[in-house]
Amino acid sequence: MNNDGTLDRRDVAATLLREPDDLLVVCGLGAPSYDAAAAGDRPLNFYLWGAMGGAAMVGLGLALAQPRRRVLVLTGDGEMLMGLGSLATIAAVGPRNLGIAVLDNARFGETGSQRSHTALTTDLAAVAAACGWRATATARSMAEVEVLRTRLRQEPLFAVIRIAPEEKPRHLPPRDGGYLADRFRRRLGVAGSE
Amino acid sequence: MSSSNWQAQVFAALKAAGVTQVGYVPDAGHAQLIEAAHADADMQAVVLTTEEEGIALAAGAWLGGQRAVLLMQSSGVGNCINMLSLPVNCRMPFFALVTMRGEWAEFNPWQVPMGAATQAVLTAAGVHVRRAEHADDVADIVAASAALAFDSAVPVAVLLSQRLIGAKVFAR
């Protein structure tokens, strides 16, 4: 099964995160975090540098805590595969304000581009649908990504975007977790209020 | 004091601590707490497929200005280890109530290894561990441990002993 996408991951991230306004963004570890940072670092981006498999659940906790804000989880296929169960957990809760975008290069890019399950047999959008996500999508063109940018800010959506396996220069966001959490909470206006 | 009393007091302690998100992997010892959380309009109870999801859930809750608790049994602690780097690195609170298996009249030998390792594993991963053995002080221990977690922004787990919970009885 050849699932190699053709889209440029930096173009995809720049499109999804264009004019972010007050979108709350959680980034899975590795290249999706670098992509988000390259699109423009901001306090309301929370980058995971570890905790693999946890990005979607961080998004759920945040979405439940901030029901009037939109939350976007931006992650990769390897990170999402490690947290497959969270697709069932999130679907069971059904938050209206949470979207997930998976940049799927069918590779474990950070460790030598070994093929992931999405290069072999797994369709993440189908997994999400089977878990109970009512809206799922797979994008293979920038026109489709543009549509996803709008939908991800309006509805609960699980989106897979087929990107090229090409590696990009690293654009490293801050990696001090205490700093990242503190600036996020301050910008959101919840520091000291909880 | 009846066993249902201490469980109601633990729930009241969580409410008093301002906890509004309750992630859980079910355990018989937490059954009353889970039911109470689902019935409370000010709480969101989230059933998890695996325990480490609850650590990420709690981190997201904290980022958004809410407080969470994770309910699990000792066998689930082993699933959590790497995810504990999240609250430790981000200097976030983390609060868990862990019902113990494998330590008191345990019938199932598969529960014994993780039960014996629970406290050491949590400590090694950077979690402050407290232990409740008696019905008359469990609520105080939970309240004080929640204050430690949320006010000092550190990871804390309270182990609820199997003697307190009551050993699971298997039909033979």
Note down, in words, how this protein is organized.
The complex is a heterodimer of chains A (194) and B (172). Chain A is an alpha/beta fold. Helix content of chain A is 41%, strand content 17%. Chain A contains 9 helices and 8 strands. In chain A, helix 2 links the parallel strand 1 and strand 2. In chain A, helix 1 crosses helix 2 and helix 1 packs parallel to helix 8. In chain A, 49% of the residues are buried. The mean pLDDT of chain A is 96. Chain B is of the alpha/beta class and 172 residues long. Chain B has a single domain, classed as Thiamin diphosphate (ThDP)-binding fold, Pyr/PP domains (Rossmann fold). Chain B is built from 7 helices and 6 strands; from the N terminus they run H-E-H-E-H-E-H-E-H-E-H-E-H. A 6-stranded parallel sheet of chain B has the order 2-1-3-4-6-5, with helices on both faces. In chain B, strand 5, helix 6 and strand 6 form a beta-alpha-beta unit. The model of chain B has no long low-confidence stretch (mean pLDDT 95).
Quantity of strands of chain A, as a count: 8
H/I helix tally of chain B = 7
- Spell out the CATH superfamily of chain A: Thiamin diphosphate (ThDP)-binding fold, Pyr/PP domains
How helix-rich are the residues of chain A, as a percent range?
40-55%
List the helices and strands and how they pair.
The complex is a heterodimer of chains A (194) and B (172).
Chain A: H1 9-16, E1 24-27, H2 31-40, E2 45-47, H3 55-65, E3 71-76, H4 77-82, H5 84-93, E4 98-104, E5 107-108, E6 114-115, H6 117-120, H7 124-131, E7 136-139, H8 142-151, E8 158-162, H9 177-188
Chain B: H1 3-16, E1 19-24, H2 31-39, E2 44-47, H3 52-63, E3 67-73, H4 85-90, E4 94-99, H5 112-124, E5 128-132, H6 138-152, E6 155-160, H7 162-165
Parallel strand pairs in B: 1-2, 1-3, 3-4, 4-6, 5-6
Helix pairs in contact in B: 1-2, 1-6
Feature tags:
A: 194 residues, two-stranded antiparallel sheet, B: 172 residues, alpha/beta, Rossmann fold, 6-stranded parallel sheet, globular
